[in-house]
# Entry
Amino acid sequence: MSDYRFSESDLAHFTVQGYLVRTKVFSPDEIADICSECEGLIARLVQHRHGKRVTFGSYTFDADTLNDTIIKWEGDTDIVHGIEPFAHLSDRLKQYALDPRFIDPMKDMVGDDNPELFTEKLNLKRPKHGGVNPMHQDHPYWINVAEVAADVYTAMLFLDDATLENACLHVVPASHGQGEWIKRCDGDRFAGNEIDIEKYPDVAAQPVEVPAGSVVYFGALLVHQSAPNLSDKQRRAILYSYQPPGRRTQLESFRKGWKSAD
Ligand SMILES: O=C(O)CCC(=O)C(=O)O
# Structure
């Protein structure tokens, strides 16, 4: 491929289905490099960590305001569910976010030739411990953080083979065309970002099984989810999310919030 822009058929698929899968976009050597950088970063962040944990919705959060990131834990265990954001903590991972395999398709999704990062997330889904990502759209989580949440698009890079066994991503094709779905109102405010699945008894999310190095591209309104990882295999992924240039990032919003809480 001379560039990684969407072809006409990619664009047609993305427009109708709300997502696009490209398999084995990154080589095994690149994935090994990214994994090593991610694991090193996690180890550095959690070494000697005794932060204050709070549970909201399906997640246990620990705001690491020294490093300007949020650590998500698997409940009260010492197992990390993921972190967000992280590009400011690793030049290498920031550099990967600028790779044309992410940026070229983003030009077509974001509708601008200079898309910029909005946020970055590392999801670890560790063997036997990786927790659920309940059915949701990203839009409600970002509505008060991004300048225009609907303009944020994500590239999810799989660092391990992702199958039904180790809790691959599931998507609801064409769900992005119906605005925000009905959300839970039986929990805290954060749980209120999750979809009320009782309102959608006939919806079956479809598994996206992909080999390591593959990328799934989707927008803020695509309904998606993944199960707990009950297998003995890793199921790690990084998600880079982009928006048109010059807009506030998630990190800037977090920093503002933490400063005003001081
Ligand atoms: O890692 C996954 O399977 C789910 C990712 C996701 O939807 C999220 O982190 O919001």
